[in-house]
């Protein structure tokens, strides 16, 4: 199945990836090849097969509800592009 | 000293033949002299390394040294290292200085290992040639016009050129074993859950596992002793006792049942590579193993299954890179959407974007059942094939890759051609099994890897099987020319 340029634009929007208009064609070609390739899974007989999400049969571990981590906000914010008064700054969202 | 294995260097340190500071200085000088040819390191940390080496020497003087105290290593740049840039091979994290250590890093630090730097890798570990790194391709020390494999290509090249005796790596779909094969070294990937993923930048969380790139299986055992074990900070880390992997190395292989999956010897396998693998199997027969054919009937589904599961998980994991809290942010965003789209569009390279989009597509409304759910089912079929094979045999063997190292630029035009290079290794991650690649010979002067796959949590057995072979062969001792 081949993906159209419009489908690629839609997927890129869903994934929040700003793709240059000049690259859409080449992504459409590459992604179509990948989708064609994985399409062969359709031929596998899987009617009675349980889906496997994870290699190990394990249950989600729970821990006691107590504080285990201390506050590292200042340290973590040293990696942020823009902060102010301990807050992360983004462009205005609400006018 | 550089030709010695990690275990031999550990012995030299313990015997007082050399100090950690001397050893560390010697390897720093080697990196300075050689890495211009290979581009194996993204960041080197000579000052920190010498400080750690002096501390290791003090520890040894006070009688507090363990087997790894003072030995130099390097970390793949996917492991968070406190106070040191952790780029994951991406422009997205070029400016990211980790505020904490990954558990693997912390455990090796506690053991006293000295970190020389961070190694190059495919961007976010997505690649099989190290050509997707934002920091440029790594060159194979056996032939600098060829790739070292990927994604742990920098770790592999650094060890192959003996710029460091051992390095960490990660294996999501062969990213330790394939580069180890292409550079003539020992790559080891433990069972999923054996080593903590905490602080290891996530690519595909149900497949990712940390391991090692070393000169020998004995070295891999030494490192695994330090990094394996339960970690409450990784919800998929397994609570299970860690044996002494070095203690199991010497067991006799008499009566070992080796299964050779006939599906590994398909039309894509290079004939010369097949002959090297056959010779290795003969060597195992001489060691007392019984070699028999087995079948993994669904192996052909493993690469397409992998290229649904891994991109799906990747598209979810990489959603965290949003240009807000850390990492790359575009210039002058108009609004929040523009900030997200341009930061991610400019910060990620083409292969990462392809995988994010593939994952987004297979998870999107209307396609989930046809792709993602279907792949979860074929994944089960692949895993069950392995379980059935391990009812009959102790270990599986075959080629790690279909051919020796290919040329830089040779497979970059078509993603599928690149993906198919991992046709023997992807299935192991889908199943979650431990596996290794060990040097088994050469084709036209290029190394060939023998792929060993073990049953769940049988790392000790696997290392034993690799070690016994290395005691009667010297492929793992061979080094490229021009690294003196």
Structural account:
The complex is a heterodimer of chains A (95) and B (484). Chain A has 95 residues and is mainly α. Chain A has 3 helices and 2 strands. Chain A has helices at residues 5-14, 24-38, 73-77, and strands at residues 83-84, 87-88. A two-stranded antiparallel sheet of chain A has the order 1-2. In chain A, helix 1 (5-14) packs across helix 2 (24-38). Chain A starts with a helix and ends in a 7-residue tail after the last strand. Chain B has a single domain, classed as Amidase signature (AS) enzymes (Alpha-Beta Complex), CATH 3.90.1300.10. In chain B, helix 7 packs antiparallel against helix 15, helix 9 (302-317) crosses helix 11 and helix 9 (302-317) crosses helix 12 (369-392). The mean pLDDT of chain B is 97. The chains are: A mainly alpha (95), B alpha/beta (484). At the A-B interface, helix 1 and helix 2 of A face helix 9, helix 10, helix 11, helix 12 and helix 13 of B.
Strand content of chain B: 5-15%
Distance between the termini of chain A: 43 Å
What's the total helix number of chain B? 15
Q: Got a strand count of chain B? A: 11
* Distance from first to last alpha carbon of chain B: 11 Å
How many helical stretches of chain A? 3
Structural class of chain A: mainly alpha
Shape of chain A: flat
Count of folded domains of chain B: 1
Please state the average pLDDT score of chain B. 97
Mean pLDDT of chain A: 93
CATH architecture of the domain at 5-42 in chain A: Orthogonal Bundle
Helix content of chain A: 25-40%
Greatest contact between two chains: A-B, 52 and 72 residues
- Helical coverage of chain B, percent range: 25-40%
Q: Please give the radius of gyration of chain A in angstroms.
A: 22 Å
- The radius of gyration of chain B is 21 Å
Question: Main sheet of chain B, how many strands, which sense, barrel?
Answer: 8 strands, mixed
**pLDDT < 50 stretches of chain A:** none
